Amino acid sequence: MSAFIAQSVEPGQRVKRPRPMRANAGVRAAYHEVLLREIAAMRHDVTTTILREYRGNYPHLAQDASPLEGLHRTFGRLMDKWQSRFDSFAEIAAQGFVGQAASSATRGVSSALKDLGFTVKFQRSHTVNLAIEGCLAENVNLIKSIPSGCLGEVVDLVETSAKSGRDIGALTKDIKSRFDVADSRAALIARDQNNKVTANVTRARQKELGIKQGRWRHSGFSTAPRPSHVAADGEIFDLDKGLYLDGKWVLPGEAINCGCTWTMIIPGYNDGQP
């Protein structure tokens, strides 16, 4: 797309402030729900299967290695089953989410420009495709990592319980707690990746138009904000580079769980605006 050229602003002319781009909460919620459903299915299958076998062998687990070996074999089958399922699920879920988040980000840029009196029609481009491909790969890998991260710890819980002769009630609570951690991780993935896709696609779209700078806007939503990000509010940065914070160059929405965004600085329009 050709560079976006704004008309010059006459002295004294009122300049509207561009609004910051925000990640779509509906897209985040939908992605979170998709992840939770798949984790819930895994939770039910693993919990039911393991507890049934644990209950049947409970009297002998602490004294006899054979029942424990059987539990390991059962767990191996469950791990293979759910890793394979999440490997397939990851491609579909990531494509759906990234596509929705990218479309929402593009609409957001168009809408923000329209509020300022500019009309832009975007097409898919190489720059945006690269941004989407990077986000897609990251989300696929994150989803694929869920079973190993969760089930690896569950098998340790089962083995520890078996060797110490703990009752099934205590093990049930431990397994539930571990799957609750997986649910929390799904929430983090949905929130963090929604911010990242929105930031990456928004930046790509703005760069297509010749917009090279932005003004950092701290989200203000976090209960534990990064002090450097709070201090960065209002600072101007290059879209290719970001700001040097905490010992490294970083862009809004790039750090894990960062909800910061920015307002675009349009050459000839608001580049002189404080």
Automatic annotation (TrEMBL):
A Pfam family it matches: Phage_Mu_F
NCBIfam families: phageSPP1_gp7 (TIGR01641)
Residue ranges of domain Phage head morphogenesis in the record: 154-261
Protein name according to UniProt: Phage head morphogenesis domain-containing protein
Species of the source: Acetobacter tropicalis
Top-rank lineage group of the source organism: Bacteria
InterPro entries hit by this protein: Phage_head_morphogenesis_dom
